[in-house]
Amino acid sequence: MLGLLVLFFIGKAFFNLAKKHHRNKWLFAVLGIAVCYGMIIIGGIIVVLIAVALGNESILNLSDALLGLMGVPIGLLSAWLFYYLLRKNWEGNPKDQNPELLDSSDF
Prior knowledge:
By secondary structure, the chain is mainly α. The protein has helices at 2-20, 25-53, 64-92. Helix 1 (2-20) crosses helix 2 and helix 2 packs across helix 3.
């Protein structure tokens, strides 16, 4: 159930950001969720690799759910970082809303 709430709030934040800056809303909502969950998996693997490299092989006896929870902070941090970078990039480079462009709809 908690995973669905994370899905909802991350997707909603990226959806609203894309809507505010006139970008593809659903693409960035799904991309934000994918970045978060992808980095949760990669973060769990990184935690295990670091523990094994430091000689703590007892981490291999932990359950998969607990190892996944160890990657959650990395996933959430990477989603926040992706959101921050998109926002800064889009504020610095807004889409042209100039009606005098040749691509305008009333051509």
